[in-house]
Amino acid sequence: MNQLIAKIKDRNKTASKYRKVLSDETIFVMPEDLTNAVVYNPNTLLEDGDLFVITQFSSKEYCLELLKMDFDSVDYALLDVQAFEKLDFLVSYQDDNYFFQNIPKSQLVRKKILLFGERFQYDNSNASIIIKDIPDAIYSKSNDSLYFHRLSSITSIFHGIDQLHREATEAETTGFLSSPFILLTNNFSSNDVKTANRKRIALALDALANFNDEEKRTIFAYIQDYCPSLAAANNSFSIGTEDDLKMLLFGIEQRFYTTLVGNERRVANSVIPMQQGGSRNG
After folding, report:
1. Where exactly are the structural domains of the chain?
2. Would you put residue 250 in left (φ > 0), alpha (ψ -120 to 50) or beta?
3. Residue 152 · residue 158 · CB < 8 Å
4. What is the DSSP string of 113-134?
5. Cα separation, 219 vs 199, whole angstroms
């Protein structure tokens, strides 16, 4: 039985923050093919219509308790219409799948509308939520996987999931720029580092932590080969602009490559790790 559940913002921390809204309604449609979903990687840009996937989702610390239990509609009281402005997100339970839609304040609409149905009807006190054609996330119970398009759309639903693509802290950013392989020029400092590069720094710190000394030397030589303008004394890199920093970070992520035909040097704008056999998803 299909059930639409609403999560409410509750400062009183009641036992259940979920309420029933509708029964026997199909709110969202399951995508035809989820087999080509791409395992989430912040370096990957999706093609139109593609989805990211996080497998073994119930074992993640940001998984909702709701998804770990068997669904039973009797566990949820009806939503009080007065709680409209307290709505946080919607969950549509359909055939053992959970469809999520975030509800930012901009979607909690109160306005005068003219309804077109069997007859014209004017309503000057209407409260409504715009249902998206595509949900923000889908959880499949059968394979314990979460599918989504954009991480930013679901961070307010799954608290802590933003750590998958976090920004480096001010201390981490300052520490990275103070690395012995970086020579700052043009008075460049952490104050000049914007969000995109802060996210790349967080990824670079994780990558460098997994490199041994020999691998670091190999990576630095690789960067100097592709970005000779960054090369400075003592195997360091001259960083004086955001673009300099971006290219250094791209190098640490090993995004530079040379085409086999034409010998053209390029930088990958998006990366999809290939698994054994060429499959994109693990």
Report:
1. 3-163, 170-267
2. alpha
3. no
4. EEEESSSEEEEEEEEEEPPPSS
5. 20
Confidence (pLDDT) at 33 = 82
Quote the longest CA-to-CA distance of the chain: 79
- Residue 231's pLDDT is 92
Rounded distance between C-alpha atoms, residue 59 and residue 53, angstroms: 14
Residues in the chain, how many? 282
Q: Which residues of the chain have pLDDT under 50?
A: 276-282
Q: At what angle do helices 195-209 and 170-177 cross, to 10 degrees?
A: 70
What secondary structure does DSSP assign to 45-75, as a single string?
PPPTT--EEEESGGGSTTS-HHHHS---GGG
Distance of CA 62 to the CA centre of its chain: 13
Say if pTM beats, i.e. exceeds, 0.70. Answer: yes
Residues 6+ apart with CB under 8 A from 137: 99, 100, 146, 147, 148, 153, 154, 157, 158
Q: What are phi and psi of 62, to 5 degrees?
A: -95, 5
Q: How far is CA 138 from CA 23, 98, 210, in A?
A: 19, 6, 32
